[in-house]
Amino acid sequence: MRQIIKEYIQTFNKTLNLPGISWWIIDYKEEPSYFHCNELMEEMFSLDKNLKYHSVSETCPIAGDYNNNIASKDADIAKKIFDDYEKLLTQENEVYCNVFPYYNEKSNKTMYFSSRALVLEKTNNGDVSVLYGLIEDITSSEEHKIELRYANDDISNLNMQLQEHSSKLEQQVELRTHELKLAKDKAETANNAKTEFLSSMSHELRTPMNAILGFGQMLELDDDKLDQTQRQNVREILDAGNHLLHLINEVLDLAKIESSTVDINREQVVIYDVLQQSINLIKPHAIKRHIEITNLVSKKEHIVYADITRLRQVLVNILSNAVKYNSENGQITLKSEVVDNQRLRISITDTGEGLTVEEIDKLFIPFERLNQNTNIEGTGIGLVIAKKVIELMDGTIGVASMKEEGSTFWIEIALVNKVLNK
């Protein structure tokens, strides 16, 4: 071994003794060529670190053994390593770098290495005389790259699946939206037809009903000419006729509201006055059932922004229900509360049987009557009209109730920012 080679080896042992780094050196002035490598390379590639080589192919470290240790699909990598190494020896290149996989039989595992070679000395003729190289174990890094590539492939596949699913979902949404639109149009057409029918029928029924009531009132005027039985029959005709007329008027009112032909004329309204008028209208019915009405609404006359006729209609409806569905000798309590300094809430509480959650859900459904087994008169549209009317005035209506504990119906309406003090 030449002295210069020994010095190179000593230098490499001192400076290149790093984890995962293998190095080798070849002296072509020796005959045959002399090859030396560190212990890590000897161990990794099962090489003899003091081999003698007799040909160029042999002097390519691990290349002669490479094809036996790599999968056939990567055989072109081995050929490239050898070709690049041969170019180095023929002076076409002075440095070569490669990354290559290598099957390690001991660990039964494919490892990955980065290989670099550099010419250290040349002869006077320019031929390569000393060559050295580094081989670094980059298995962990390459495996990470492979995993990342697989992960990217998986992500790409998932993105494609997501796009396909999204496209199908969009088509389903478009189809469902079209179906819903058709259903909505059909429902609106049916609702409009129903509204027109109710309006037409209400007008047709109201005309003869007014005639019946007129004849009944004429008979009532000749009260002195009637016996007791006849008087009772006339009274029943008038009571039934007035009740039926009230029902007809409610149906007609609902038809107008649903067809958006009802007029709402909002103005500043003193709520206390409207409440008192509404209480006076239902008080006779309350007296018959011995029901006490307590008005705790503030005497400060709050002013709301509403249609006074429609507001009275809503309050009378709620108060009438509080009387009809209350218990004998019961109570009705009215209270007021300012909400967020912008709205006035009027609450009407009764001491009736109360409502279940299921019954509350049906309250504002047209023609849905509760307690149908009782003799309480009604159409099942009073609260429906009240809700629609209060909403037309930008207000809200609600209820809180528990079975056997009575019910509290409330409305909220816009409050004008001033109060009249009595």
Task: Report what the structure shows.
This protein has 422 residues and is of the alpha+beta class. The protein has three domains: 3-137, 2-Layer Sandwich (Beta-Lactamase), CATH 3.30.450.20; 145-258; 267-420, Heat Shock Protein 90. The protein has helices at 3-15, 39-45, 56-59, 63-66, 75-89, 139-221, 228-258, 271-288, 308-324, 357-362, 382-392, and strands at 21-27, 33-37, 52-53, 95-104, 109-122, 128-137, 267-270, 292-295, 301-306, 331-339, 343-350, 396-401, 407-420. The strands form two sheets. Strands 7, 8, 9, 10, 11, 12 and 13 form a seven-stranded mixed beta sheet that branches. It has a six-stranded antiparallel beta sheet with strand order 3-2-1-6-5-4, sandwiched between helices. It is rod-shaped, with a radius of gyration of 50 Å. Mean pLDDT is 79; it is low at 61-73.
Q: Give the termini distance in whole angstroms.
A: 123 Å
DSSP summary: helix tally: 11
Supply the helix-strand structural class.
Answer: alpha+beta
* CATH H-level superfamily of the largest domain: Histidine kinase-like ATPase, C-terminal domain
User: How many distinct folded domains?
Assistant: 3
Round the Cα radius of gyration to an integer and report it: 50 Å
Q: What is the overall pLDDT average? A: 79
Task: Note the overall shape.
Answer: rod-shaped
What is the element string, with H for helices and E for strands? Answer: HEEHEHHHEEEHHEHEEHEEHHEE
Report the uncertain regions: 61-73
Please provide the count of β strands.
13
CATH architecture of the largest domain: 2-Layer Sandwich
List the helices and strands and how they pair.
Elements: H1 3-15, E1 21-27, E2 33-37, H2 39-45, E3 52-53, H3 56-59, H4 63-66, H5 75-89, E4 95-104, E5 109-122, E6 128-137, H6 139-221, H7 228-258, E7 267-270, H8 271-288, E8 292-295, E9 301-306, H9 308-324, E10 331-339, E11 343-350, H10 357-362, H11 382-392, E12 396-401, E13 407-420
Parallel strand pairs: 8-10
Antiparallel strand pairs: 1-2, 1-6, 2-3, 4-5, 5-6, 7-9, 9-13, 10-11, 11-13, 12-13
